[in-house]
## 1
Amino acid sequence: MINVTKAYLPSREKYQRYVDRIFDSGWLTNDGSSTQELERRLTEYLGVRHVVLVSNGTLALQVAYRALELKGDVVTTPFSFVATTSSLVWEGIKPVFADIHPESLNIDPVKIERVLNKSTTGIVGVHVYGRGCEVEAIQSIAQRNGLKVVYDGAHAFGVNYNSQSIFNWGDLSTLSFHATKLFHTIEGGAIITSSTPMYHKLRNLINFGITGPDRVEFLGINAKMNEFQAAMGLCILDEIGHIRKERARVAAHYESQLPSSIMLMKQKGFSENNSYFPVLFNSEESLLQCRESLREVGVNTRRYFYPSLDTLPYLEGNECRVSRDISRRILCLPMYAELSESHLDLICDALKKTMSADKISAS
Ligand SMILES: *Cc1c(COP(=O)(O)O)cnc(C)c1O
């Protein structure tokens, strides 16, 4: 079976070498030397000021909302993984959806302005599939209305906008380092800030609000990354150049073989990280047919992201038509570093055959 993703694993020997250091030191968690090293190296690799490592990407979001004191209503996108929205609800914040733009697939600034009200305190955008949000327009809306901006950058590891990290936009950006992501620490995540006081505040927030020996200054939580997670991150970061090169190879293969009618438009100014390979069909029926014929040859695709989050059973509110339409027609093809040329041919052939047999045409 070929799955939509496959967690990247370093060699056992390499992980063992990093784990040996943990055993030698006897220090398993609480800002140990592996966590410190990973923080340092990620700060440099990503080209950002500060990285705060946390235990997963959902807590990264929750802690970011707390740090910025978001409350009341927060405007967000209905086209994402459920954690973007559920983390808001979990923090007692009401998500208000602004529909997405049909080309960027990200929250549409024009629609954000339409749903603002007196209780709105922030905007949570997602750089979905690593495709950047309209960061300037969002910043200007936030400034005019006194709102905070968080970017869920779970898909955007290594993405630059005009040669600068995309994570330098917004008040805070968050990352997920879950096993299925481009860069991972088994489970893990990070919060990124360019403010040094905010960096210290975040570090205290993820450690119970403890600010010194015998001192608890404010409400915090336990969201710390441990040393074994950091060790995996260090192994993967050693190999990140290779991983990204292989993913680019997979993307290039799909692009050369598949009809351009199902490809998403490229974005100007943003670099690509090939975290996912989404294709957009002209109808849900076409998607289901293609998905079935892929399944018959042993290929598992995923309907990322379906259903649209404005249909979540625990929410009520505005219907987002573009997001609902896109989520019915979009499918993520297998994308990971070790995907072989023969498997890629198998996937492309099955897709092409179904598309021509069933006269599935352009979206
Ligand atoms: C994976 C993901 C998350 C959640 O991250 P975890 O590390 O699994 O908690 C949040 N938002 C988006 C967009 C994601 O893809």
## 2
Amino acid sequence: MMKFKYPLAKPIITQDDINSVVQVLKTPYLSLGPKLKEFEDAFAKYIGVKYAAAVNSGTSALHLSMLALNIGPGDEVITTPFSFIASANSILSVNAKPVFVDISPDTLNIDPTKIERAINERTKAILIVDIFGLPNQVEEIQKITKKHNLYLVEDACEALGATYDGKKCGSFGILSCFGFYPNKQITTGEGGMVCSNNLTLLRLVQSLRNQGRSPTASWLEHKILGYNFRLDELSCALGLSQLKRIDTILKQRNLIADLYNEKLKDIEEITTLKSSFNNKLVRSWFVYVVLLKNKRWRNRIISELSAKGIQTNTYFPAIHLQKFYKEKFGYKKGDFPVAEDISSRTLALPFYNSLTKKDIDYIVSSLKFALYKVKKL
Ligand SMILES: *Cc1c(COP(=O)(O)O)cnc(C)c1O
């Protein structure tokens, strides 16, 4: 693994975080102890939903959501091709078919005006992804799910703290999912959460994550086929500790993103992403991504910045053009032109709360110099 002076992401772990994990190690409860419920309750309260179930990754949260909704072979789920692959994979994991709908070039989220033509009698759900922490156009999408009697599932893994019309992302799906990988707004190492206002579905998720045991059954009684997707107590304690200072974490992330946006706004070769749309869709910055005007510049810029100790990445390649999606479904270039265009021009810059103004100055001037060099070619 190459070491960068400025990595893409870096978790910020405080002494309080460390203490809370060490505290757990001094108890006999390393799994299924008191921290699990404490973390779930605090998380549900923060999102503004009735219930939450912690699991061992965001991918597990999505997988269990599909299972709990009884989505399976023969079913179709509408989703976005511009995402981290786990969102679409969750549909494949239950042997249902992901049906992609292209994105809007402004929000980079699924384009609600293009959804209805993808619906047929096999469609069971719409899986929205709040990409780069920006909420979806919830009202437009809810209109469609109501009209066609579909489930709305939310992959809010990138959007902890984002709001749509004042309400938190992760409160809109019948089931909504979060992930706590180290590059997310808060981390538990690996970890995830399913949120819901539906107690029956949430109980089912709790049973599925724990070998199909019902909450009231004995340890060796398995009512349904389940998994071990449990989140251990150390992770719950870390998540709980980070959630306590979530407002500070998000405020700092906003400041850093605003600083980047301010310093990059006059560079005509770059488009920056907005932090909000009409004050209705308010982003929680997950990664700091800019769009290059010309996709042919990208590889060269990445290597120029890499030589200066600056890690960048190309979030995200379009999912339908990944090898096994092309092979399984026959997708090809041109199927979702907006997603393809955007994904060919994205550049994610280092983004974490310990970046200083000076660091950002260095990264921005290095990017400017790299642009100047590639344009001369
Ligand atoms: C991070 C992320 C996930 C979950 O990832 P895990 O690594 O499994 O926790 C799911 N969907 C999206 C869009 C993500 O960014």
## 3
Amino acid sequence: MAPVRIDLFSDTLTKPSAAMRRAMAEAEVGDEQKFEDPTTTRLQERVAALLGKEAAVFVPSGTMCNMIACRVHCRLGDKIFLEELYHPVVAEGGGYASNAGATLHLLRGERGMYAAAQVEEAITPPSDRYAARPRLVWIEQTTNMGGGAVWPVERMREVAGVARRHGLAVHMDGARLLNASVAASVPARDYAALVDSTWLDFSKGLGAPVGAALAGSAEFIAEAWRVKQQLGGSMRQSGVLAAACLFALDHNVERLAEDHANAARLAEELAAIPKVRVEPVETNIVIFDIGETGLARADFLARTLEHGVRFSHVRGWPTRVRAVTHLDIAPAMISEAAQAVRGVLSHA
Ligand SMILES: *Cc1c(COP(=O)(O)O)cnc(C)c1O
């Protein structure tokens, strides 16, 4: 099999740069669990400030941020309202149930965004003992399987307003919150102000190897620490990891705009190929549909791989392909990737 030269599978594929590795090597460290790791403490304070929240806690992954949020917000049987292709539904091994005993109400959105009226319609009265108790409304910013769409502040405000009126909490999965912020020129804290808990992932477009930070009220984060301990997410000299995350905040945020520009160019080139239907692109995710070409998706993915280009798929949509741009994708690779698609489809 040809080596993968252009890997558009996910923005998780970024490798730490030499400069990031130097920052990691030189990090001042201590015991994180005793709050004695100065680098981790600095990262937590920085994230809390960036998101306008009272406190933040550093954890190994974004998935753990979501798990902790489920646990802190929900009691056994409680219901979470979210879009049907959000990350906990498709990629967290059912952790909302195994870790938090939570249940889900799936909403069908458009490009991963649902409407406030859908939530209003779905919420049952707290006195209704036949329904699972409604507890948490969940927003993914940007929407991953929805194609990297950015929830506008106003739309989020409407959804959060419905949640508040019914006494529900709001959580925002911020795996790509900074992509949204850069694309829309909206400070991350403006989105975060509308929710009770949110987080940043450092191992996606920000280019760090490991790490995420969950933010919320001081009370919420105190509880989050307890769950982090229970899940085995408490670390020791985590400063070597936190240093990579601080480096990412210093160097890799504004440049997300380059990933967005690359994604827009890829979308443009793909849209020019007959029978390829490209979804609108706002950030670093491009979703395109090859149903009309008559080529099965599995064959498409295998054949583009032979050209050294790797894409991924959208679960639940048998003809949709996903491409994600990131730090290790240079502009020149975009035309090459589009060329590979053209080549594969012209022989189909
Ligand atoms: C990647 C991702 C996560 C999980 O983050 P990890 O750090 O990989 O555990 C959660 N939500 C969304 C939308 C993601 O894309």
